[in-house]
Amino acid sequence: DSNFQPSYLAKLNVGQRAAVEHGGGGIAGPLLIIAGAGSGKTNTLAHRVAHLIVNGADPRRILLMTFSRRAAAEMTRRVERIAGEVLGDKASIVKDGLNWAGTFHAIGARLLRDYALDIGLDPAFTIHDREDSADLMNLVRHELGFSRTESRFPTKGTCLAIYSRAVNAQEPLDDVLRKSFPWCRNWTMALTQLFAGYVEAKQTENVLDYDDLLLYWAEMAKEAAIAEHLASRFDHILVDEYQDTNRLQASILLALKPDGNGLTVVGDDAQSIYSFRAAEVRNILEFPHQFARPAEVVTLDQNYRSTDAILAAANAVIGQAAERFTKNLWTERRSEEKPRLVTVRDEADQANFVCETVLQEREAGTALKAQAVLFRASHHSGPVEVELTRRNIPFVKFGGLKFLDSAHVKDVLAVLRLVENPRDRVTGFRVLQLLPGVGPSTAGAVMEAMATSLDAVLGLSAARVPQRTEAVWPAFVELFTGLRDRSSWPADLERVRLWYEPHLDRIHEDATTRRADLLQLEQIASGYGSRERFLTDLTLDPPDATSDQAGPPHLDEDYLILSTIHSAKGQEWKNVFVLNAVDGCIPIDLATGEEADIEEERRLLYVAMTRAKDSLHLVTPQRFYTHGQASRGDRHVYASRTRFIPASILENFSQVSWSDRRDPRAGAARPEVQVDLGARMRGLWK
Ligand code: ATP
Ligand code: MG
């Protein structure tokens, strides 16, 4: 019946529906959805994918790229639900078939393994996270002698940042240094040499860093034969949050779909917040004219997420931007409740305010899960985490996660990675030095032997390792051989833990909590079909940390969301708190900020505010602790309200000041003395 209209279409507005139906369910010309926060972009994308599948597209031939693994999983669930309306029982083809959904990096890793043999890569390559990459950069830096001969040579972190920017922005080193690292311009020659060494080291060791996953993909797609093969794999390619992609990612899309047919990208230029990772807002602005046939452009202007009071405040903030964003969002959701600007004395009070308000809202019927606390950087939530823990309020923290960064978790994963790829030196150093008596030089010698033949190393008689190591060497060799020969996933991980536990007690304090982390890791591993997939996923997009040492909260439990603003992208909650809405935090570091950076900070606040559906609190502590910014060190500073809310737009907020009622100091007047006890203490020694 050609008049049949699935009911999911009826729920969409005119623009959304045009985007969903663009091309009539077949392969269509390029499509761009560019629209403001909460206007249903992601929702429209999910409908479009469902609509394609309902109209016969093969889910296995759809490539869906989102900015996190979580977003991809969420999208897949939604598509299944929407398509289920028409497909009924057959909707399981979505879950079973839509398996090319993930981040650019994760998809890149899979494709590179697929084509490894065609492009001169060993398919057993392992992936370095940023820390490993910095360590390898450091190793090469030492080997080239820069750290010794050249005083004040850029740190390993800076070197990696420069390298990474040059790769992602696809810009010559000179330009990168001039624009973003002017204080390193004297080092152009040395850096060029260093990066050449770094690239060579990665190849010798068969490791790829994050940037390589995009770079190799882009380069591979330049080979006509591979490009054709790749392009024919995917009928449809859809990308969410396109404003935060970089030049390399755009070039990959172009190589995959040179005519743009089958390509849909979605985004909001007012929410571009990743330029520090070389994201390029021009990608989305240039998209319409990139192809022989101009792209269809759909804009959406109705916001379905927030109340008019919240939207007015968010619009006022972005309305002050130097750059004009043409979108004018409106909403039908009326509310008298303006977003609140809450002044508190310091970060401790901020934590108390958040906890009390969260509990009040829960009393009033808003589940913890429907509430989120957002902050600029991971460490800003410290005081809130402490207070939540003290009050037994469960929470999950997204972004900037510490779980996988913790040494013991990395140790255990490193063992698995070394088995996968014995040439990886950074990993080898890490693992071998877990053994008592093994220092960098022994580790280096063993790694060198390993590079030629793993068996030679494993066959090393205990007599040839340092004396202190003799006793533990056989167990290590046995573990290694076992993992290699009879690998049985996910039991491998347990074997590593059992081997590691005696060392754990020796190397780290609080072995008990650390052991709990390792059990949690085994829990996570049980959800993976293969060791390789587990290692890749964890390296690229770590799971979220929780307040609960025993493991992530069960899905039916209620927990508060803590998230960096960057990781909150695309999400929404009924009640949102934004911590530290003060100058020095949002925007961060006014001293070195260039105009463009400040503008990105404004968009960051805009992204944070537009996460809220019903109520929004921007908290401004009058005293605020800064962490070593711009070499000024850690210190308390007196802070004032963020410059992004100037007096001229204050009318969009209701201003309240909050003080801790349980704090006996709050009511009483301050004592009228001024003493400097520090001077007195120093005086004691004069
Ligand atoms: P962001 O810019 O933050 O990523 P977005 O544009 O992707 O936002 P969505 O997350 O897709 O917006 O949608 C925001 C909210 O609006 C969601 O709760 C979604 O279910 C709802 N929504 C979207 N379209 C409609 C519609 N036509 N009718 C009712 N609700 C809608
Ligand atoms: Mg979205």
Automatic annotation (TrEMBL):
Chain positions recorded as ATP binding sites: A35, G36, A37, G38, S39, G40, K41, T42
Catalytic EC class: isomerase
Domain UvrD-like helicase C-terminal: 308-570
Any GO MF annotation of the entry: 3'-5' DNA helicase activity
This protein's UniProt keywords: ATP-binding, Helicase, Hydrolase, Isomerase, Nucleotide-binding
Catalytic activity from the UniProt record: Couples ATP hydrolysis with the unwinding of duplex DNA by translocating in the 3'-5' direction; ATP + H2O = ADP + phosphate + H(+)
InterPro entries, per the entry: DExx_box_DNA_helicase_dom_sf, DNA_helicase_UvrD-like_C, DNA_helicase_UvrD/REP, P-loop_NTPase, UvrD-like_ATP-bd
GO CC annotation, single: cytosol
Ranges where the UvrD-like helicase ATP-binding domain occurs: 14-307
E.C. number: 5.6.2.4
SUPFAM superfamilies: P-loop containing nucleoside triphosphate hydrolases
GO BP term (any one): recombinational repair
Protein name per its UniProtKB record: DNA 3'-5' helicase
Organism: Allomesorhizobium camelthorni
Source organism phylogeny: Bacteria, Pseudomonadati, Pseudomonadota, Alphaproteobacteria, Hyphomicrobiales
